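Please, structure for the following, as tokens.
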Amino acid sequence: DVQLQASGGGLVQPGGSLRLSCATSGFIFSTYAMSWIRQAPGKGSEWVSSINSGGGSTNYADSVKGRFTISRDNAKNTLYLQMNSLKPEDTAVYYCKAASFWGRGTQVTVSS
């Protein structure tokens, strides 16, 4: 049974930081490229970032480039997203994704 569970969200002030984690099980994590997707209230889903299976190649949406860093620990079957210099427009539910599998998201709220 494939499971992906994002965690680490919360309420943070503009300019603050959060580190999201995505714990996975039920598939061979080290063979899958992984992505973070977010969905803001009343909006469609937005791709945020992706990382290849080995972790050596990453890509970012222009909206987060230079502020967010995606990484993975294949020994722990875990994906991460370090988010710095957060803005109110980063407010969304963040999901991790492997191929067609989505996990339960974590809410990130950026507000003063």
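The chain has a mean pLDDT of 96. The two ends are 40 Å apart (CA to CA).
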